[in-house]
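Why does residue order matter? Because the sequence determines the fold. Keep that principle in mind as you read this record.
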Amino acid sequence: MTLRVPYIAEETIEQGAEALLAQYAHVKGVEIRAPIPIEDIVEKHLKLRMEFNDLRCLFGLPGGRKPDIFGAIWLDSAKIVIDESLDPEEHPLKEERYRFTLAHEGGHWRLHRPLVQETQRSIVCRSSQANERVELQANLYASCLLMPRKLVMEAWRDEFGNDHPYLLRRKSFGLPYDMDPKLAGILRSFEQSDLYNFAWPFANQFRVSPTAMRVRLEKLGLIRREVPRPESLLARA
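Structure:
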């Protein structure tokens, strides 16, 4: 059963993530820098127990498919379980996904624990429910926690010397309406490739996936997509 949660403004979620970082920095007497020490924050500061397990097996789901559940949190016992497929020691290439999942579960703890009734002990995070409000809120919290506005802006200024946004110029405008769909898809994919390559250095610095960093950069207004002019739209009609 999906947890129904009230609307929370994005600014409020970001402020909550910033508050957690400030609390951690104060208690530890450290300066927050990238990459964010998410394991220490979750386990030592929030006092949440974390372990790896086969979540499909744990919840009695059939095997043989890619995991639909990457994380779960038991709110009554303050325990996070991450699917063993994300264990960074066994699967180093999954470290970014593991870190984001851990921050996501921490978001549930901070945002949703007061909302959960005694009868609902856990929140199970399934990829098939990624567009549910409860999951979107936890994703935003994780994004703000792992990629704090202040640090991302500093990284941007270090790279470019200013706060000017990068305008992504689309390559797909003006494609003939009768172009082979497969070829058109390849041409449009160049835009996503550009985004990936552009976000990668920042993603590497913050130890998150290029996709997560691209979303954060767009959210902060540092990447903007070119909007087609009216005549371009008419030409394609």
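The beta strands are 49-53, 69-74, 79-83, 122-126, 166-168, 223-225.
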